[in-house]
Amino acid sequence: MSHMLDIALIQTRTPATAQGGLDHVSPLIRQAAADGAQLILTPEGTNFLEQRRDRRALVLSDEDQDVCVLGLQGLAAELGVWLLIGSAIVRSGHAGDDRAANRSLLIDPGGRIVARYDKLHVFDVDLPNGESYRESAGIRPGDAAAVAQMPWGRLGLSVCYDVRFPQLFRRLAKAGAEVIAVPAAFTVPTGRAHWETLLRARAIETGAFVLAPAQGGLHEDGRSTWGRTLAVSPWGEVLGVLDHDAPGVLSLQLDLSAVETARRSVPQLSHDREFAGPA
């Protein structure tokens, strides 16, 4: 098994329809594949970003009928690459709950979906600048973590707000994840304050590569996202960043042997202790 892995992180400014999402991201994925990427990761909300509930109801579909998901399965097969759809907004499939799932989908070079993960933690917040978000109003949170096997090692899955919950990342690392994906559509205020710091902390704590493809800029539905797609080493070093909001591709080569080196140097994953309290 090779320790070297060529990856690409895609930064997007996704439109408000699934066809628009597919048309927007496909050229960037083709560019990444042409540059030699074996694993390509896209952001949260790759298929569409639409927070207006009446309009979202018109474009929401089942996973197996979503125009963008189907198109990206075909594109992965055409290009012969592994592709992580950072997330697609699709019907959850739970009877009696009309909320969507915010779902990561890992696609193999045959175009098959080989792993799924529904975002565990949903973003409900009133920000100091007056912005308010109630992701739980439209998104049904998942209830299980996920680690997927790839030819180069194991990939842990998370989405956006999950990055604030280190216990999830520790579980992923203990399940063997050497690379952890954090596709996101971060708000501008929280992105400016916390984005890089959180990603570097999660990498240091787990001794894993953390790969964070992001949405960036002003979207059709009126939201603004932070961008700054980022890749972090297991030692917490920033390996690469798109230091802007515009759509683009960040291409890197990872030496996965750095995971073992970091975990030998600081063997924190084996040093958990049970403890009492606090009361």
From TrEMBL:
Domain (CN hydrolase): residue spans on this chain: 5-256
Molecular-function GO terms, alphabetical: hydrolase activity
Keywords: Hydrolase
Pfam families named in the record: CN_hydrolase
Family membership: Belongs to the carbon-nitrogen hydrolase superfamily. NIT1/NIT2 family.
Name under which the protein is recorded: Carbon-nitrogen hydrolase family protein
